[in-house]
Amino acid sequence: MRPGDRLVARTVRGAGPWQAVLAVAVLGGAALQLALPAVLGHALDALTGGRGDARLPLCAAVVGGLVLCETAEVWAAGASGARASSRLRGRALRAVLWGGPATTRRFTEGDLVTRAGVNAEEVGRAPDALVSAAALAVPTLGALAALALLDPWLPAVLLAGLVLITLVLRGFLRDSTAVAGGYQRLQGEIAARFTGALGGAATIAAAGTAGRETARVLAPLPALREHALRLWRANARAGVRTGVTVPLLEIAVLAVGGWRLSAGALTVGGLYAAARYAVLGAGLSGALGGLGRLARARAAAGRLAELLDQPPVAHGDRTLPAGPGTLEFRDVSAPGLTGVAFTVAGGTATAVVGRSGSGKSLLAELAGRLADPAAGAVLLDGVPLPELARAELRRAVGYAFERPVLVGATLADAIGLGTGDPGRVPDAARAACADGFVRRLPRGYATPVAEAPMSGGERQRVGLARAIAQGGRLLVLDDATSSLDTVTERQVSAALTGGGERRTRLIVAHRPATARAADQVVWIDAGRVRAAGTHEELWRDPGYRAVFQEGA
Amino acid sequence: MARRRGARREVVRALTADPRLLARLAGWSVLEAAPALLLGQAVARAIGDGFAAGRPWTGAAWLAVLGAVWVAAAYGARQVVLAVAAMVEPFRERLTARVVAGTIRSAAAAGRPPGSAAVARSTLQVELARDALAAVVMVVRGFLFTAVSVVAGLLALEPRLLPVVLPPFAAGLALFALSLPALARRQRAYLLADERTAAATGDVAAGLRDITACGAEDRAEAAAGRAVAAQAAAGRRLARVTALRTAVLAVGAWAPVLALLAAVPWLRDHGVGPAVVVGALAYLTQSLIPAFTGLVEGLGVSAVRLGVALGRIAETAGPVQRHALPPISAGGDVPHVLLHGVTYAYGPHAAPVVDGLDLTVPAGGHLAVVGPSGIGKSTLAALITGTRRPGAGLVLVGGVPADRLDPAERVLIPQEAYVFAGTLRANLCYHGPPSVPVEEALAAVGADALADRLGGPDAEIDPRALSAGERQLVALARAYLSPARLVVLDEATCHLDPAAEARAEEAFARRPGTLIVIAHRISSARRARAVLLMDGTDVRSGTHDALVATAPLYADLAGHRPPPGRDPEREHAR
């Protein structure tokens, strides 16, 4: 069984009582639908024959039952779909969150939204689709049987017509997929031009060419309209064929039935019933929709299963022994880094320098287990990071990034994201020189993140405050002060080194001043440690000096 | 509210833009509804005058007439689809144009593009709006024409049928009208909940690294879980109201049928035979019920979808553009650049990134701007090129306020060079007819080898096939060719190697005009006549040598070792 089908099966089992309601409603509805023409036909004969209206309550009961079944089906399908989709969405979210940053390396953001959104919705409809597909045979075969009971000639007429409908539908699918290809290609062309023009926003703004660019992006529109109209025409053509086939089928049955009526083999009510059965039998095309939905649910389940089957990051259960926060890289290799080994003594600062693309950020990710090495080990106070309990690891290590993403409803939430103690927020913000500008905002710390426009430097300071509030032993700063002016940066580093506490710091840096202030510099070049020592020692190497020439 | 009015205007415009189209639609709709007029009559006659009367050929003839009408109606239905297409395709094009123009305009104003996901979303919304409008037009129109035809058909068949059939049908219709607002509300709430879940999922994906680093997986799960749960609740509420809709629909559809059956004895007493009853049933089950079903689903789902999609499109596209003030020319001379007391902040309460800046770049001057990344250098470039307006103070280029200056008189190359699919020449002549031969500009900035490799100026180029550095070379040659006498290079050479960068910058230094270079490497500052050092709102200017001597940050950036025994930062913070 494929993973997608397993997921569909589990979703159907998980639908619980709704599944039973659905099955009863769909099958009951199909049966009643099948009974209705016969009941109505008999009633018609009885009533027009002047035999009283004893059949009328039966008709009302069948119609009432049908209404009840249809209503129950719609309700059950909607409710079970909502429940199943929300469960699947919850699972998808958990898979993303507990799979860690590795997830976004495998799936793009838009892809994740699609899988957890549209795909989960489609899989959620699987119970309904399955029941509908299973009930598919009831109206078609039932209508054929009912016709045969009325008169043996009638099902032959209907069958011939059904073959015709099937052929029509096949022709339609072939037609429209070919036309849709050209349409989608042009749409993609417009989207590509659009994205390109948006990428050139600064150029366009300065050149005052927004109008011209709009025209350029929209240039394929006439051709797109051409394709769209072709698609409409294909649709309309198929509409003609189906729109003609079903009524003609009914007329054929009426004609044949009419002759049988003349011959006395059929009553007027029977003829009415025959016409309705013909329509019911021809409704196969609508019923086929259930099969299509099931196919879509299976395809969506396949895509969703890829995400759900991703294993969560495993954590140990150890706690850290008392210690100063010594960080050790022991022959660490990962895609992009080879044999990295160094130790950051507890309470000291180590700067990591290197050209862009040399592997500095990956090294920072490894230091706090945002990524795991392929070989070697990273240890904090002697404990390999994977052996630590998750809460213990995150209490010990705080991260600040060049471009922090602020998560949380308000700024206070965003800064306190890594600590359970909101009381630490103002102190941390002061240490990161963020307190001042946050307080100037209209609602201070209670300002929603989305309503606080910030410069790159301000955003970095909020990110720093978040790390300071969190990390107990080790702070990993990945280019986290690159947008601060020198005065603010000096104040921030003074706050990090001064006071009572001295946390271990691993600082990815571009500025010589930062490297100079560190106790040790690790120089990374093409994924390897090229040299380690103090800034003064390394400065003698022209290659080292050249690292700082980039990015004035 | 205003947005909703705007959406309605958009729809009304689409429907009434072409009166001839409307007439065509009405005409074909009449043909499409012809079976609804004839169906019951033909069936009643086929049975009553034909099959049941022992004249099967008469019955067959009536059925043949009905078949012919169905075929004609199918042709009418085809023409209806095409007329609706002719109505909604221009509607789609207008929406697309609004989205594209609005997004380009707001991206230009913000100086930063929205993500590709936003682009995909707006494309999807436009498609949804078009499909929804087509569906609404189809069902409303179909229902109106069918209902009128059925009433006329019943009237012709037997006037006594109307008081039997119409009241229960009208009751069903009224019931639907009553339930429509609730239905629309639930449907809308569900669509919005769906969008919120998508946004929450997107937020989790975008912030995954930070969430993991903060150990906040459970809190993020709870926050996104709330959106998921809210959507599930909205889904359940929608299911309930959809079930109600189904019930209403069934009552409206079946009550007339039962009423007709119940009235059979009464009808028989008035001489109405079984054939007429079957004909009336055909009217109901074949024409009126399908049209009513379409109406219920179309208005309950498509119309709501249309409203939501149009609202989203209006948000993306922003307000309809007001006409900007006409640009002013600074005259043909090489302009000087003057900033006086310029202050700029990202928000009304944010600390300014540029605060009270005074700066003069003389006509023909060459200034390099140096400072840490994110400190506001690009903002300064945007202020000088007039794409951002200062909160306070004046930015004058050749005596003209920068935001009013004729865009043809300045050129900005940002870090991300803009190259579009087209010929190399079209890319190069982006700023107007070139002032020197294209080949000369290519050679001057060092893009000649690239142009040869691409196949000359008239070769088609695919921007995706070019490296970031190659795109920068194209943008540099383009700026070199422009008639503008003020050139601002905002880290425009950051993807070039130092030698290529030097060649390009020297070409611009030789070119007549005023040059401002936002420096990526300190070597750019060495080549400039004047240097502006930005360090927060602390700004210093001078020559390279003067700044090395007096500004420790600059000395640091320039890679000069500080003299022993002095802490440069303390010095600077003095």
Describe this structure in words.
The complex is a heterodimer of chains A (552) and B (574). The longest helix of chain A has 47 residues, at 153-199. The model of chain A has no long low-confidence stretch (mean pLDDT 87). In chain A, a hairpin with a 2-residue loop joins strand 4 (375-380) and strand 5 (383-384). Chain A has a 6-stranded mixed beta sheet with strand order 6-7-8-3-9-10, sandwiched between helices. In chain A, helix 2 (17-48) runs antiparallel to helix 3 (56-99), helix 7 packs antiparallel against helix 12 (268-282) and helix 11 packs antiparallel against helix 12 (268-282). Chain A has helices at 3-14, 17-48, 56-99, 102-106, 109-124, 126-134, 137-150, 153-199, 201-207, 210-218, 221-262, 268-282, 284-308, 360-367, 390-396, 411-415, 425-431, 435-440, 456-470, 486-497, 512-517, 535-538, 542-547; strands at residues 327-334, 337-344, 349-353, 375-380, 383-384, 397-401, 474-478, 504-508, 520-525, 528-533. Chain A has 552 residues and is of the alpha/beta class. Chain A folds into 3 domains: 1-137 and 287-313, ABC transporter transmembrane region fold (Up-down Bundle); 152-265; 327-547, P-loop containing nucleotide triphosphate hydrolases (Rossmann fold, 3-Layer(aba) Sandwich). Chain A contains 23 helices and 10 strands. The two termini of chain A are 58 Å apart. Chain B is α/β, with parallel strands linked by helices and 574 residues long. Chain B folds into 2 domains: 2-158 and 272-317, ABC transporter type 1, transmembrane domain (ABC transporter transmembrane region fold), CATH 1.20.1560; 337-542, P-loop containing nucleotide triphosphate hydrolases (Rossmann fold, 3-Layer(aba) Sandwich). In chain B, 65% of the residues lie in helices and 10% in strands. Chain B has helices at residues 2-16, 19-32, 34-51, 56-110, 116-157, 161-206, 208-213, 217-262, 264-269, 274-317, 377-384, 424-428, 438-445, 448-454, 468-481, 498-510, 522-527, 544-550, 552-557, 568-573, and strands at 337-344, 354-361, 366-370, 392-397, 400-401, 410-413, 422-423, 460-461, 486-490, 514-518, 530-535, 538-542. In chain B, helix 16 links the parallel strand 9 (486-490) and strand 10 (514-518). In chain B, helix 2 (19-32) packs antiparallel against helix 4. Chain B is elongated and about 115 Å long. The two termini of chain B are 56 Å apart. Mean pLDDT of chain B is 87; it is low at 562-574. At the A-B interface, helix 2, helix 3, helix 5, helix 8 and helix 9 of A face helix 3, helix 4, helix 5, helix 6 and helix 7 of B.
